[in-house]
Structure formats: structure tokens, C-alpha cells
Design goal:
With 96 residues, this protein is of the alpha+beta class. The chain has a six-stranded antiparallel β-sheet, with no helix packed on it. The longest helix has 7 residues. It is elongated, with a radius of gyration of 19 Å. The termini are far apart.
Length: 96
């Protein structure tokens, strides 16, 4: 059955789920990995070390990140709510 794209779109309109805001849409397209937080409160992604809050030590956490911008990454809960934003470890700052 040959159908115009607009006709197919209208026919399936009830199946479309709208995203409430742009920020949530941005989170959907991030890479997703699970990492276990080490005893020193860190995780590693693509050879970059990130510092996490100490409450996650020993836990497995769901992390989302943009591989083109590794300045910050996000910790998400099992039900896809953002819990924390974490940043790459600054070794010089930690040495002081």
C-alpha cells in the first residue's frame, strides 16, 4: 500500500509520545553505561576518571554521557530520573 508520509503520520498519531521539555530530549540520546563506584569514589569512562559523591561507593550506577563532551556526565536512577551530575577528576586540585 503506497501511502504518503503525512498520511501515515496522521494515522499513527495516537502512538506518538511527546517529550515535555528539550532537556529531557537531550538526555534520551546520551550513551548509557553501568559502572561500579570504587572505594575512592571514582568511576572510569573512556580513560577519563570521574569523581562521584561518596554515597555511591560500592554501588553500581547508571551513567549517561555525550562522547563528544566528556566534561560532565549524569547519574540516573533505575526509573530514568537524573540523580546527580558529576565531573571529571582534576588531579591537580585533589593534590592540594
Amino acid at each position: 500500500m503506497k501511502e504518503k508520509p503525512i498520511d501515515k503520520f496522521i494515522r499513527h498519531l495516537t502512538n506518538i509520545r511527546y517529550i515535555p521539555n528539550k532537556k529531557e530530549l537531550d538526555y534520551i540520546f546520551l550513551y548509557r553505561v553501568t559502572r561500579k563506584v570504587k572505594n575512592d569514589s571514582t568511576i572510569s569512562i573512556q580513560n577519563t576518571i570521574f569523581e562521584t559523591p561518596t554515597k555511591y561507593v560500592g554501588d553500581k550506577i547508571n551513567v549517561r554521557y555525550a562522547p563528544t563532551n566528556m566534561d560532565k556526565i549524569y547519574i540516573f536512577s533505575e526509573d530514568n530520573n537524573i540523580l546527580d551530575t558529576i565531573y571529571s577528576l582534576k588531579k591537580i586540585d585533589n593534590a592540594i
